[in-house]
Amino acid sequence: MFMQRLRAGRIITGAEAGILGAALLLVMIFAIASDSFLTQYNVFNLTRTQSLYMFVALAQAIMLVTGNMNLSVGAIAGLTAVTFGYTVDTLGLPWPLCVLIALSVSLGTGFFNGFVMTKLGVNSFIVTLSTLFIFTGIVYGVSEGYSYRNIPASFKAIGRGSFLGLPYLFYLMLGTLGAVWYMFRYTIFGRQLLATGSNKEAAELSGINTNRIIMGANLLSSLFAGVGGLLWVSRLGSAQPAIGENWLIISFAVAIIGGTALAGGRITALGLFAGGLIMVLIKNGLILVQANVYFEQAFLGSIILLTILLDRAREVWSAKARKS
Amino acid sequence: MKHFKSTAKATLMGLALATAWGAAATAEEARFAWYASTVHPYFDEVQTGVDAFSEKTGIEVVKRLGQDWTQDNQNENVSAMAAQGFTHFSIFPSDVAGAQGLYEELAERGVTIVDFGQATQDPTPASFYVGTQAKEAAMQATEALIEAMGGSGNIINILEVPGENTRLRDEGVQEVVARYPDVQIIQTVGDLATIEGSVEKVQNAIAANLGNIDGMIATGYTPTVAVAELLTEYHEQGGEKIHFFGIDTDAVVMDAIRDGHIDGTLAQNPYGHGYIPLEILRLMSEGYTPVEGTHAIDAGVLTVTADNIDTYEGEISTLTQGIIDSLVGTYLTK
Q1: CATH number 3.30.70.141 is the correct assignment for the domain at B32-132+270-287+294-300+313-333
Q2: Is A238 on the interface with B (CB under 8 A)?
Q3: Is some CB atom of chain A closer than 8 A to the CB atom of B208?
Q4: Which of A272, B25, B55, B87 is deepest in the core (most CB within 10 A)?
Q5: Which CATH homologous superfamily contains domain B134-267?
Q6: Is A149–B252 a contact, with Cβ atoms under 8 angstroms apart?
Q7: ipTM above 0.85?
Q8: Tell me: the pLDDT tens digits for B135-190?
Q9: What is the DSSP letter of B67?
């Protein structure tokens, strides 16, 4: 029964299998190439970073799926982190309350982005490019570049603790991806997100309030960015205003490697999982093989491109095979 | 479009500088300005030196921070300040090569510039550079690390973003390691621009060399903060001792020293980086000129460990005063 469903593509689609296959191939290569690869320390850190990447990617993918984008994901994460740091360190509030305040701020940013996009009709690129600067400016205005260090140990445990050798964050990632998979597969909102991204006009003609859907995507995107920012605080042990500064490229790269369509209408939770894994594996592998530090970005870009080309080739071959 | 933008930018800059020239030429008194790239704890510390200079001399210094680290942003802001009639600038160049164009145009119009924090590449119109000598500081940190390691062992060399200063720091680390036959650099990790990226790369490097690392050295601010965070976690979770020396005195780094997770850091002299350039500019506005062959003024660095963590600031003040006292004669003449 399981194998039938698997072969029919109801459990893993061809696209997901391709990305997952590429990730597994990289795991095998690095496992053979380096004794250090499968050590408990490395596996712990790989899965922890993958988990953090996943929230970064989800923040972008949820917008891409509607045919929009969010360039301010990193700035939202930074603002959430600084809000948390300020409330927990400077104001001395209990951390669960600070988490709620910080996430309210991140949702507020999503609402603002969504409002300008849907009510004022401004393109998502323009809106989020502007708010990238606005939110970053607020981050540095509030923090003045300083980090907040008095983070409660119980909060730090979220980003540093483990269960059965794997970080808590890994389980949090699996739960979140499960929820995302369920949402797109079985909920009306999820299907309407996909419909809006596939063809906005058709979606509107079929009665979908696309503005409401885009607003929902903005709220979800900012929520994922905010959660990602908080998890980085927990992992680092301090709320750094620089959190989120390198998120933009990662958010697009992981989402696209993971099979999210830039034009909208397609997302896969399993693909995102594999995309995140591929990204951390490549970065981990470059260190393991001691790649020249000055050429590192060129290596990284080349491997990402190669991975995407391989997946594209697999799609072309599959299409040809189906025709014949 | 790109061409149009460049032309428009150049025209605006030219207009601003032309106005600046007019203002500078007619100004009866020197007007002092301090400029740094953007918000950063280092610049906050530098500003304490600037404020102390103003307080002591009664000279007003207008301070301005840019919006980001790009040279473009600096060009626009400094040109605008020059247009307001400022004649003497203490500047942190955002790009040590890219700042040349701006400086040349300012200098042609009689504006005097002193670099602080990092030096523009030679030949430069800046009269002086006041700051840390990148290579010498890296050598000092490496010596301290090797001493903490007991004179032998394996090191991971952690570098910031590629650039002239990073290259010098790398050279400094390698030169010192070459003096110790029992010390090897087993891995160099680089291009660490952000806190998250630094944490990820350094933890990957630890994983790749687990059980084989005796020490790590970081010669940039961001990786130092990241390693301090990382080693705090690593040691708290029972990881075997890895010695570490970094640079700068971020609160995260100082906490890690106090708690014994890292060995130490190099304290630069940001107070001096603020005060000394303005004192030089003041003297130059009074007719002093640079002594031939002088340009770089080492504001000094101090190795901070758990032993002197509460007293090192006093030592830095003494160092600064010594440099100020030696300016006329050693670096400036009339």
Answers
A1: no
A2: yes
A3: yes
A4: A272
A5: Response regulator (3.40.50.2300)
A6: yes
A7: no
A8: 999 999 999 999 999 999 999 999 988 777 888 899 999 999 999 999 999 999 98
A9: S
